[in-house]
Amino acid sequence: MTTATQDTRAGDASFAGKPLGNSGRDAGWARERETGHRSGRGDGERLARALGLFSIGLGLAQVLTPRGVTRAVGLEDDEGNRKTMLAIGLREMATGVGLLTRQHPTTFAWGRVAGDVMDLAVLGRAFRSDRTDKNRVGAATAAVLGVMVLDVIAGQKLSHSGNGVGAERRRQGGIKVKKSITINQPPEKAYSLWRNFENLPRFMAHLESVRVMDDRRSYWKAKAPLGATVEWTAEITEDLPNDLIEWRSTEDADVPNSGRVRFVPAPGGRGTEVHVELEYDPPGGVIGATIAKLFGEEPSQQVDGDLRRFKQVLEVGEVVHSDASVHRGLHPARPSAETPPLAPRYDGAPS
Amino acid sequence: MRALCWEGKRNVRVENVPDPKILNSRDAIVRITSTAICGSDLHLYNGFVPSMEKGDILGHEFMGEVVEVGRAVKNLAVGDRVVVPFPIACGSCAMCSRDLFSLCENSNPNSWMASKLWGHSPAGIFGYSHLTGGYAGGQAEYARVPFADVGPLKVPESMPDDQALFLSDIFPTGYMGAEMCDISAGDVIAVWGAGPVGQFAIASAKLLGAERVIAIDRFPYRLRMAMERAGATDIINYEETSVLETLNELTGGRGPDACIDAVGMEAHGHAAMNAYDRAKQALMLETDRPLALREAVLACRNGGTVSVIGVYGGFIDKFPMGSVMNRSLTIKTGQCHVQRYMKPLLERIQKGEIDPSFVITHRMQLDEAPEGYDIFLNKRDGCEKVVLKT
Prior knowledge:
The structure holds two protein chains of two kinds.
Chain A: E1 3-5, H1 40-64, H2 66-72, H3 79-101, H4 105-128, H5 134-160, H6 165-172, E2 175-183, H7 187-195, H8 200-203, E3 207-212, E4 217-223, E5 229-240, E6 244-249, E7 257-265, E8 272-280, H9 285-294, H10 299-316
Antiparallel strand pairs in A: 1-2, 2-8, 3-4, 4-5, 5-6, 6-7, 7-8
Helix pairs in contact in A: 1-2, 1-3, 1-5, 2-3, 3-4, 4-5, 4-9, 5-6
Chain B: E1 2-8, E2 11-16, E3 28-36, H1 39-45, E4 56-57, E5 61-69, E6 81-84, E7 87-88, H2 94-97, H3 111-118, E8 124-125, E9 142-145, E10 153-154, H4 161-164, H5 170-179, E11 188-192, H6 196-207, E12 212-217, H7 220-230, E13 234-237, H8 243-250, E14 258-261, H9 271-282, H10 291-299, E15 305-308, H11 321-326, E16 330-333, H12 338-350, E17 362-365, H13 369-377, E18 386-389
Parallel strand pairs in B: 11-12, 11-14, 12-13, 14-15, 15-16, 17-18
Antiparallel strand pairs in B: 1-2, 1-4, 3-5, 3-9, 3-18, 5-6, 6-10, 7-8
Helix pairs in contact in B: 5-6, 5-12, 6-7
């Protein structure tokens, strides 16, 4: 019922318009693409291929002799560690193949960086355990850090070379998410709930608050990964009642972002198709975004959840909760002693 | 309150947990008087359904007395006696407007999880994993019932719990299985599985005018119940005879006009195929063992209907699609849209056309629920259906 694409094609500067047949409004939306400096490309690819072969070799060793590698890096040889080693081995092999196929080497290069971060987390835990060989864990950590430097270099060179997704992210300002949902209500109702931006935190889980400053500007506060908060001023760049709203952050934003939502009558009286496109520059660039994903902050899933809650508010008057969903993160399906404060019903919804 | 909690594979315990509270304005809190263990609870019990959390309260067949209502609930009052349908449905989305309540678009807060596994998400369900919402279940002293203005049905004072309880799931589920067969005069219907849902599929096929209804199972006591209580005209014990040959024999070589799979993902069968599916399931190469479904497809007459009400969770292997396509079979399936059937089936009970309590073999206290699971799983003591009283 919802559809999503997280755009990863290189050079698709006009992504915003095509599927919606609305290209006339796109000119200001997609940023102009710079021409790349190509010098780093050959180096980056050579390094990526070397790292790819290294990944496959290490992965094979981990998959074939998880016990040997577990001991070699100083971890305790138990069932759990062997399983972790097997999983890491499979990941290494997948990354290696990805680097060598040269379809999206940049993605896989940054994937290796993310993998390094995970490995460091495992080793960090091993350091705190009293059942591990500290010398070996230290040597393994040094090795991972060393390889990580190469991984970052490869990722950066590939990203600068205009080859692959990282390049696009740098030029065009980061992550793009497209999602849509159909709501059993007329466009006017969907538009008016969204257009009063102070309603957005009702259904957008990561927004803390939005304060409308005047008829074009509003002040947004959002939760960022790892407990951080980001704030910015947004201005409306286009507003067609019951049809389209476009906004972007003003220049001083920590996390430059822009968004656009269209309300399209669904065929055969099926209500309204809501098409959302968001674009933002995550703090820390691509590395920041990749690390955020590791902590479960997957942008496309966030927007999917936001749209489903938007639909709930319009169709049933409030965000629907289960015993587990009122809590952040995992919680068993049972009542809890303390219930977080829940939003009141939305007055504009059908009774 | 006391509640039956899932603590891991084949490990359930009755624990003290906080009482439920109103979370949404259309909620009601129900003090449960009767609740039952469903065959699909055994899939959770056996650990075949992903996304279970330690401490989840199980149970989706329950009834009781309303003790609190949210401020947007106008049709129920404290003191009303209600039976609660297992799918949670808002009543106003596109699917609910078409009476497809088990596909409600608003009741599953974990729809993203279900969408990843199944492509799109169905409705939320009480006590039935986090894929279907993470709602606390009804094998407890109290339950929070969302959209209480849509689902719960008031039960007449004169009707005992034992007759009304199964309107929550298994009677409507069996009935929908028979209804999907589009039964007309002279039709022969074969039903795989003589568990509680199979019994109601058999009884419903008779109510809807089937000429013959053939029950297939491996437990003689269940086949006896199918014949003596549900109204099956013929029975096949698949451990004693070949199902396909016997069905051909019973239908003059045509095959049954419609076949109902009331077994689902944990089917048993003959040695070779059974071993094959058990091995694949153990290696996680398939999640479900579709032995009954394969047989139902192969048995069905040309142009007939295969109605699937047994629960499947993920992926199956060796599905005879060639048979389905080349012989113009129709497959109909779904979690029951219970809200659609509760009222008409309540009327059938009132008219005396059926007494659903015939499937009950065990009445126990909620505190004995872990023993109830074990008896039901292992078919001990002639177990067909366990009802728990609080």
